[in-house]
Amino acid sequence: MRVALFITCFNDTLFPDAGRATVALLERLGCTVDFPAEQTCCGQLHGNSGYEDQAKPLARRFRRVFGDAEAVVSPSASCVGFVRDHYGRMGEPFSGPPVYELCEFLVDVLGVEDVGSSFPHRVTLHPTCHSVRALGLGERPQRLLRSVRGLDLVELEEALECCGFGGTFAVKNADTSAAMLGDKLARVLATRAEVCTAVDTSCLMHIGGGLARQRAGVRTMHIAEILAAQE
Amino acid sequence: MTAAGFPTAAREALGDAQLRRNLGKATQTIRVKRLNTIAELDDWEALREAGAAMKANAMARLPELLERLEERVTAAGGTVHWARDGDEANAIVAGIARGHGAEEVIKVKSLASDEIGLNEALAAAGIEAIETDLAELIVQLGDDEQSHILVPAIHRNRAEIAALFERTIASGQSLGLEPAAIAEAARKHLRAKFLSVPVAVSGANFAVAETGTVGVVESEGNGRMCVTLPRVLVTLMGIEKVLAEWRDLEVMLQLLPRSSTAERMNPYTSLWTGVRDGDGPQEFHLVLLDAGRTDVLADAVGRQALHCIRCSACLNVCPVYSRTGGHAYASVYPGPIGAILTPQLQGLDRAPTLPWASSLCGACFEACPVKIDIPTVLVHLRTRVVREVKRDWSAEKLAMDALGRTFASRSRYERAQRLARLGNGPLGRLPGPLSGWTSTREIPHAPAQTFRAWWAARAGGAQDGAAGGAAGGGDGRHSAPGAAGG
Fold it and tell me: Is the ipTM of this complex over 0.95?
């Protein structure tokens, strides 16, 4: 199957390893991956911050870049949610090919849960708000992780509570964001996991930034990096 | 709101350790109870759909339904008053009380009355309003502000309340910490008022246009006392409380208690239709309050805020509210629903920071019994604030414009990625004060190579002249011990 990778500006610029792992994983599973290099940002940063006038041209750009693809796959639940739900609300609905979040694509389209990876570590998953509530990913990430050889998946307490990132919320309401993060970090540490993973690097940047400040010794990794791993 | 608004008020609240403990415990308890109670019903989602449809229907037919309600209430011996704003409503209520020579009125918990400052207006007219809802009484006696729709004194714990009563209604008598003893002090104080005050003021949870029936649901029975014992009853309700038909109550009376107190049924449901000879109040006035609601109705996206049935489920599940409490919202309507209702009722310029008092996590939408899509309305109001309130030359607007131009062109975007690696340019500094991030979190290091540079190099590399960089791993990780690139 041929898929167009929607990398997201965030991963492209800051977390290329999540993108490389996504490519490795999809190719291992027999997909042909295209990377339309004209892609930039889907407009979520602007749209969710109230700058709809700046977000709309980016929605139109997304349509030009991805409109002719067979299927679009992205390692970001939050950006996929924005394309699927918010483009329509702005009056710029995306009527092109289906746009999938990576776990969704693996489980629903390729029909795999065991992707043939091995990662012998203790891992906890933060189910990001947009993956659960906007996309309805449900237990797909957990099912994929449970099939990874050697991986010990530990449940996170109050897992469904927001980590406090929320895009510009993290700086506009920095104190409240930090209070939410503090509780999330305490729960991550309580799992004694070596790795905290998620389907969005944005939330992971926030959680990882807090863990690094506390010198907690817990790594953050995008789920694609675990699913691509063959340790 | 103050000019600094929510972020500053939230910071103060977050610094109050006692408040954090009180709120954390209270919201956690009710969250768990609510989930258990709604799990008992296998048609909960269908009930939510029905509730949402009833409210949408009522809002679409509002003028017709209000006129029908007036006609029915009048036919049943009541009097209907129309109030354009808070001042008009306050004057109507004060006029009725004064007409009966009342120096005191007893009150059933009413958010609408708090919204328009009825107690203060009555005081200015020489009439004392006595709150009979226990939590409202606590707030009133403490000269405090309410912080929750359903439990206005959620920020107070038992010891604080006992001490307050000892100072006020128990006149120095020691009460101890037994809930029964503390409640007894309130009971003694209130009973005397129920039996002597001739005028009561209530709010309304619902009003049924079809029958002219008005209703209040509550837990304590003090509301029941107020709507049955005094000779005169004045009910103040926002016009959005009207329902089309009597049978709508079947759905609403399931949705509301399970969502608010996590009870299958609330202990007291009082419904009345006009007046009845020799039974209950002999004079009934219904005050229909607009106070900005028709303006809200004109906003096709924002109007769903008017569907709210004031259950407060969204407050209890909100990760922001459960940490900051209600005072940071500076409104009688706090939490997620307050963040979309207050700016619309008061004007966006009066509460411009509230639409940003959310991480858009969506827990509120998931909990709302009438399916108000609060995250969508928050984003819509942010858009309106940016268009209608923010100055064109504000630093944020300029930064967002620059980012928009960057993303509009591949070459500008790739140039910005190169600059970002040096910590400059539109991608290097996101809008907002950076110190807000770095006070609690490390900034990720820009990776040696962007994804697109890696892709171009892998594919042969010739066509990518832009975002290159040395080959090799490493990405935007924080320098946590043990961190390693893929």
Answer: yes
